[in-house]
């Protein structure tokens, strides 16, 4: 099979759990923003999940990628797996004990002195997800995409059902004073928990997922090779720093909005930004699905002669797909915006900026495979630390002046500059002949087409919807005609 088609198939399977599943999860946004009409309440969720993103990086400390690297180069894969698993098990236990012990203190530091329960719930969510990370990585390494997708989809569906039950049913029954056969639902709802039911739903799903991974955990040979662990740690720690810096780029804006804006508007602005950020979910979900499939895919082909040509073509198709996602969302934003409550729609202007920012984050991932393949992971640290510095500087400068729009522009500047720097460094250490005309041209074409449609006179909804999506299909057909020859026949040998 053509390796690009194989990668596309793997991405599609992973997308079953990420894109399709998370799209279902995306429909929880209306539930949250219509049930909790005060954006400040949604701001609580936005803030806590920003912290969760940081801690997920810290507690896995690059061991997933280390597993891919050392397993691909070792004949004793069981020892590699057991060493990584035991390492995370010990570190996660220490983390959980420390947080539960100091939950009240941490709640006070976060300005939630009466919400230590939120801290405890989130701590358990992070711990359970961390323990599941290595078994999930093993499924990816073994290319068991179907089981991976099944478990991830189950996690998402349980999260959705639990949210609908607690917030959709129980809260609705409580607020409406429903008597009769739904009185039991009203009694289950505690208004003091409020938005915290989002954490409870997540905790239930994370616990169930870990239980479903018991077969992968039970079959692991718990061998801990100290010498191997040290080598894995040396490989992984730069990725930890890079991952932390990357998470700064992705989520620090949501933390800084709380502390850089006046207290009377900060949580409201944070809630609006967090809700509108969700509208850009299609781009980030596609990138996530692609990364699940692409990372082990890139490692499996790195010894082959045509590998560099393969990486270049993969990046071309990735950019084309992301450009269509951008265009599809923006041409349909007129009705997509109603997925968030009325008070949240004032922030809709961040959507195109965040979509394009995430596109360049995906390009950065493609460009940066060189330092993982050549085991020069320190460059990942340098690049993401650079991005973190850009993020911090621009957010501190722009948020007080522009609010959440400043945060969005800082995100775009960060990812764009990281992609450029990674390309320049890659040309020196692992040159790949990327087609820059396509990589830059397709996103510019998407933005241009969207802007041209914005200048058109207003049309009735049905006419505008029909015209915009017919235009999207026409452009798609033209691109397929122009690009289809690139998937025909065997890949050419690498000329780099």
From TrEMBL:
The lineage of its organism: Bacteria, Pseudomonadati, Pseudomonadota, Gammaproteobacteria, Methylococcales. It holds the Pfam family Polysacc_synt. It is a multi-pass membrane protein. InterPro entries: Poly_Biosynth_Transport, Polysacc_synth. Keywords: Cell membrane, Membrane, Transmembrane, Transmembrane helix. It comes from Methylococcus capsulatus. This is Oligosaccharide flippase family protein. The chain crosses the membrane at residues 12-28, 48-68, 80-101, 121-137, 149-174, 194-213, 233-252, 272-294, 315-336, 348-367, 379-398, 404-424, 436-453, 459-482. It is found in: Cell membrane. The keyword Cell membrane applies.
């Amino acid at each position: 099979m053509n390796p690009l088609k194989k990668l596309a198939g793997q991405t599609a399977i992973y997308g079953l759990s990420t894109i399709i599943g998370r799209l279902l999860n995306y429909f929880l946004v209306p539930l949250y923003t219509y049930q909790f009409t005060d954006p400040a309440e949604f701001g609580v969720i936005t803030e806590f999940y920003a912290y969760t993103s940081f801690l997920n990086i810290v507690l896995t400390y690059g061991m997933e990628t280390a597993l891919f690297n050392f397993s691909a180069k070792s004949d004793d894969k069981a020892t590699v797996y057991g060493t990584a698993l035991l390492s995370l098990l010990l570190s996660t236990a220490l983390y959980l004990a420390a947080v539960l012990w100091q939950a009240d203190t941490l709640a006070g530091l976060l300005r939630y002195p009466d919400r230590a329960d939120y801290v405890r719930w989130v701590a358990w969510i992070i711990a359970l997800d961390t323990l599941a990370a290595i078994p999930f990585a093993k499924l990816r390494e073994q290319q068991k995409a179907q089981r991976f997708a099944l478990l991830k989809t189950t996690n998402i569906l349980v999260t959705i059902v639990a949210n609908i039950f607690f917030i959709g049913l129980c809260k609705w029954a409580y607020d409406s004073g429903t008597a009769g056969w739904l009185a039991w639902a009203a009694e289950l709802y505690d208004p003091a928990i409020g938005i915290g039911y989002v954490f409870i739903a997540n905790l239930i799903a994370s616990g169930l997922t870990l239980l479903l991974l018991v077969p992968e955990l039970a079959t692991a040979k718990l061998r801990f090779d100290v010498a191997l662990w040290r080598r894995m740690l040396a490989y992984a720690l730069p990725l930890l720093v890079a991952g932390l810096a990357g998470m700064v780029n992705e989520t620090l804006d949501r933390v800084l909005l709380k502390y850089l804006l006046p207290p009377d508007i900060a949580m409201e602005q944070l809630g609006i930004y967090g809700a509108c950020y969700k509208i850009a979910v299609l781009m980030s979900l596609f990138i996530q699905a692609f990364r699940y499939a692409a990372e082990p895919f890139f490692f499996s082909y790195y010894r082959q002669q045509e590998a560099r040509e393969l990486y270049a073509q993969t990046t071309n198709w990735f950019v084309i797909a992301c450009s269509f996602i951008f265009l599809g969302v923006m041409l349909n934003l007129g009705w997509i915006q109603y997925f968030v409550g009325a008070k949240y729609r004032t922030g809709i202007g961040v959507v195109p900026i965040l979509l394009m920012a995430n596109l360049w984050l995906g390009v950065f991932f493609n460009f940066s495979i060189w330092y993982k393949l050549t085991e020069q992971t320190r460059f990942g640290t340098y690049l993401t630390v650079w991005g973190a510095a850009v993020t911090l500087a621009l957010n501190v400068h722009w948020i007080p002046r522009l609010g959440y729009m400043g945060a969005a522009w800082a995100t775009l500047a960060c990812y764009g500059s990281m992609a450029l720097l990674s390309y320049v460094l890659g040309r020196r250490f692992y040159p790949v002949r990327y087609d820059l005309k396509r990589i830059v041209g397709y996103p510019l074409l998407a933005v241009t087409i969207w802007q041209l449609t914005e200048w058109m006179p207003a049309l009735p909804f049905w006419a505008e919807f029909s015209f915009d999506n017919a235009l999207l299909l026409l452009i798609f057909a033209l691109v397929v005609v122009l690009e289809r020859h690139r998937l025909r026949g065997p890949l050419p040998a690498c000329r780099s």
